[in-house]
Amino acid sequence: MTSRADVPQRTDARGARRGASASAVLRAVLDEGPIARSTIARRTGLSAAAVTGHTAELARLGLLHELAEPEPRGRVGRPHVPVDLDTGRHVAGALHLAVHHATVALLDLRGNVLVQHEEPHDGLGAEDLLARAAEILDDLLLGHAPDREPLGLGVATGGWVDRASGTVVEHPLLGWRNVPVRDLLAGSTGLAVEVDGHARALVHAERLFGHPRARDSVVQLFTGNVVDAAFATGAGVHHGPRSAAGAVAHLPVDGSTEPCRCGRTGCLEAAVSEGTLARKAAESGLIERPDFPELLALAESGHSAAIRLFHDRARLVGQAAALLLEVLNPAVLVVVDRSVARVPGCLPTIRDEVRDRTRCADPTETVVGTSFPGTELATAGGAVLLDVLYDDPLGPLLTGWPRAS
């Protein structure tokens, strides 16, 4: 990999345009590959010469490759040799920091999770946790991708994350404040590191690899121990000043008297967090101790009382979804919640609440589950990095040039 010091800095408008054009080519291959260069030109509006130049450069960087066999043609002339993503050359490191465990993973260029490892971390401080994550990443690279070149490491977590500085500004449930995650991990791994909030990261994942209507406009509602949201239109994901957009933890919901750390009652995160539900299940005797995975497995097995707990929670999640739909009116709202894929009736309950509270014409089409059930945390971390790559493949990850702006 070329170091930044070896390459002159790209700061002119022409360089930015080249990055945008290369991005259009790479995204066309992501969407439709294997694909002929002539088809890329039609899809992107670029000239045949520009497409040829960009595909050659992207192949040199290890992002594209020609297929071994040419595309069959029924007429005389030079065959169209399709190009596709080279998913065997590079690998994207991923780290998601949840309240009780960290997920470390490797992804390919199509966002497929190649391997993921879940590491409990209760009791570890920020620096120790990040150092442990770096060790696990190194083990995964050696054990599962010894012949691949790492693009870098994407990091996603809840709370307030400032993407520009790579800092977790505030994560109350982890007890973190102003933790320089990017600098700490770049120092311990030697890799390029990108950091963002997990709801925004999953918006990027949906727009790159998931729901087709997410590229028009999308709201992502993440409900785990942390509850937050993100919004994007065709122009991109909304961050707000210091990337503080998406804080929905203290939205009021009807029918909840759960006390919140802010001193009020009925806040969304306090009402629907996994920790709250597990505690209620333990208090009612459904499970011996507050353990959300155990409660989830109980509901998945068909236990009626456990299912009722999840349905009651889904109605509260549906209130928040309805409010976000009314205010932002996206093409699609994605609910990221482990119960949606695993507990019968949760997603229909959320949709029913949306139907009762909004003018949404068809909640079945508009309100959907994540495209990445079971790998959403690993995908979130990887998408932070892969979004940077697809936004500007001629930028710093592979060439040393600064990102186009």
What can you tell me about this protein's structure?
With 405 residues, the chain is of the alpha/beta class. Helices cover 41% and strands 20% of the residues. It contains 14 helices and 15 strands. It has helices spanning 13-32, 37-44, 48-60, 126-144, 181-189, 198-209, 268-272, 274-283, 292-300, 304-328, 338-342, 346-357, 363-366, 376-391; strands at residues 64-66, 83-85, 90-97, 101-107, 113-120, 149-157, 160-162, 167-171, 176-179, 193-197, 217-223, 227-233, 236-237, 332-336, 367-369. The strands form four sheets. The protein has a five-stranded mixed sheet with strand order 5-4-3-6-10. Helix 1 (13-32) packs across helix 3 (48-60) and helix 6 packs across helix 14. The two termini are 23 Å apart. Mean pLDDT is 92; it is low at 1-10.
Helices and strands in order:
Blueprint: H1 13-32, H2 37-44, H3 48-60, E1 64-66, E2 83-85, E3 90-97, E4 101-107, E5 113-120, H4 126-144, E6 149-157, E7 160-162, E8 167-171, E9 176-179, H5 181-189, E10 193-197, H6 198-209, E11 217-223, E12 227-233, E13 236-237, H7 268-272, H8 274-283, H9 292-300, H10 304-328, E14 332-336, H11 338-342, H12 346-357, H13 363-366, E15 367-369, H14 376-391
Parallel strand pairs: 3-6, 6-10, 11-14, 14-15
Antiparallel strand pairs: 1-2, 3-4, 4-5, 7-8, 8-9, 11-12, 12-13
Helix pairs in contact: 1-2, 1-3, 2-3, 4-5, 6-14, 9-10, 10-12
